[in-house]
Amino acid sequence: MSREIKEHNLEGLRKRICTLFLQYIKTPAFNPKVAKLLKVYKKPSELKHKMFFCHGCHRYLCSADFGSCASGRWSHWCRNCTRLDNIARSRDEDSMYKSILRRLRTDEHRLKTEATIPFLLQ
């Protein structure tokens, strides 16, 4: 400001200083009380094998937040996204049509006609 630089030109510098200050106060070496609030893992190599990416919410989550598939592999969606998808998915009730088709097949089979159309219907 002593060099007569306009205020809107210093906006990027101010944002950078604020970001660096936030990083500084999040460091437990300089701010011991923040250590209780931060989630720090002891071994990053172990963390690499326990974290997975959820394709539903696009976040990295712990393996406990995922369910396993029938094949024994991990699912690509976390439990929360799977639950939301299950709630939101529309379902079609076609049991009435299945019972009509079943009755049609039994009636045609009982008549022993040469018509095969009811058996080809799905």
Automatic annotation (TrEMBL):
Domain IQ motif and ubiquitin-like span(s) in chain numbering: 1-48
Superkingdom to which the source organism belongs: Eukaryota
Name of the molecule in the record: IQ motif and ubiquitin-like domain-containing protein
Organism annotation: Ataeniobius toweri
